[in-house]
Amino acid sequence: YPENPSLDSSCFSSPPVNFLQELPSYRSIARRRTNILTRDKQSSILLKPTDSYGSNLEEGLTDNLNSQSIRKYALNISEKRRLRDIQETQMKYLSEWDQWKRYSSKSWKRFLEKAREMTTHLELWRNDIRSIEGKFGTGIQSYFSFLRFLVLLNLVIFLIIFMLVLLPILLTKYKITNSSFVLIPFKDTDIQCTEYPISSSGLIYFYSYIIDLLSGTGFLEETSLFYGHYTIDGVKFQNFTYDLPLAYLLSAIVYLALSLIWIVKRSVEGFKINLIRSEEHFQSYCNKIFAGWDFCITNRSTADLKHSSLRYELRADLEEERIRQKIAERTSEETIRIYSLRLFLNCIVLAVLVACFYAIYIATIFSQEHMKKEIDKMVFGENLLILYLPSIVITLANFITPIIFAKIIHYEDYSPGFEIRLTILRCVFMRLATICVLVFTLGSKITSCENSTCELCGYNQKLYPCWETQVGQEMYKLMIFDFIIILAVTLFVDFPRKLLVTYCSSWKLIQCWGQQEFAIPDNVLGIVYGQTICWIGAFFSPLLPAIATLKFIIIFYVKELSLLYTCRPSPRQFRASNSNFFFLLVLLIGLCLAIIPLTISMSRIPSSKACGPFTNYNTTWEVIPQTVSTFPSSLQSLVHGITSEAFAVPFFMIICLVMFYFIALAGAHKRVVVQLREQLSLESRDKRYLIQKLTEAQRDMRNQPAKT
């Protein structure tokens, strides 16, 4: 202020101690002063000004110049240039070996950077996904990125199975290498257990090829698509014998372990972001208002949609706050009433699930008992209906139950966010549990013994002479039927609906129906359902991952066209980080559910004696202990020691201690975060307090000349 030149000296002079003690954060600053001084001493080397650039800076940074790039330092351009001069000066005094090491290290880092840039241009569907991101935001883009991840995952799974199982057989079958098949004669196996009638002779109707293609029977049953084709005990090369049963089992273990590691690795990043964003409600409002915009959007209609999405999120937050206040003001009678209502509605949900599971069980039993009838005794439609009856019932259950759950959730009086999460959780459980019900129903039929032959073989050999192949056929039918349903809904529902909404918009019924929404959770549940089928069926149908790869590639283009031309984005949009973590979490649940039936079938159910690589083993897992028995005695002792209780119990205790340590560390970090938030709040109070004092000082300075 020009009229008050003495303001600087009077108002900004050193404040007295009493004035500092009036600050709200005085005690907090005093408590943290020691830590701040220590931190300043440690970082003083990098915080030196340019005019005092001396020996401390050189000594502190010289040791790190070899390992880190200059661009990583938080310094200005002049400082970085001086660091570069130091590097060039030091290079003159180094030996030729050290100079070569530095030059090679720099060259290697530059090569890696260029390689990363090149790999980004080789990404699958890079331009398509970026175009979707620009038009519809990062939420829908994350769905297509997730679909690309599943394509790559299934491709890798197929390559693993191909390298370990298919490649040795193909090299021997087509005489590419000097090798031969090894067939070990049956040991202590009744001849009735080895009978495997693949197909009946006689006249074959023209439509039977279509049925075989859709159901995996007939000519497809004899191909390498299914488990029964690999009735080989090994492949003998010149110098060694390739153990095919061990390779077959290891391929399943490897692709399941690889899927688990890959999913966990990708989900950790999203989990960190979600953990950071689990902030207080006030900070959530600030993030939505000041940092909620998606700057990848370039389309006007998508920008309007993003505006409405942000408004919806703010309304949902306000509604959740209202529900919290309502919960806090509830009386004991209202609490008892709402919990009684929720208990009753959850009983209805449970009854719906049980009814769906029972319907799947009945459909599977009916289909398995009637599909062995001669094909000439039924017409084409009847035969196809019998074969696909479990798939049809599962699809109807997956279509009807979400509608029922969406109606029920409105009466449970939850917050909007919790309603969405609970509905999705119920739908996830429904979709994935239906596959497990189908597999366990097949398992019960396989192990149910009604005659002496069943007791002799250990499984129902009359109805399931090669039960692994028939389980693979069921997974194959589920995969094909799911693909047909996705295409049919897009072509015969979404596209005509778009035409009606576009050209018949004046009709009130069409206005109420509206355009189809591209709902991200429903589409994600659909592809996770297909991936779970692939994980279960890959052991019984080794080529199923290749079919899943082609299926997801076609689904990508179908969904892209549907999004661009027939559907509209949902007003409830998802953040990319939240979406990625949610997708991978659902996928991880599907993987865990897939491992359960596979583990039971490998370890509990006797392997088929009429087909497959495990005809000479009681169970599939028996190949592992027999292989270990061929190891040297020292290695056998090591393996038995690792798998014994004497090793498992201490290992479990160590894991528990490590887990408790990280839990305690996470609790300490959480307390630090709480203290930092309190410090931020105190600093904001300090600012308000100082502004108030400054305003009072300015007012006093203006009033002094008036009094004089």
TrEMBL record:
Residues 466-577 form the TMC domain. InterPro entries: TMC, TMC_dom. The keyword Membrane applies. One of its GO terms (biological process) is sensory perception of mechanical stimulus. The keyword Transmembrane applies. GO terms for cellular component: plasma membrane. Keywords: Membrane, Transmembrane, Transmembrane helix. It is a multi-pass membrane protein. One of its GO terms (molecular function) is ion channel inhibitor activity. It is found in: Membrane. It holds the Pfam family TMC. This is Transmembrane channel-like protein. It comes from Otolemur garnettii.
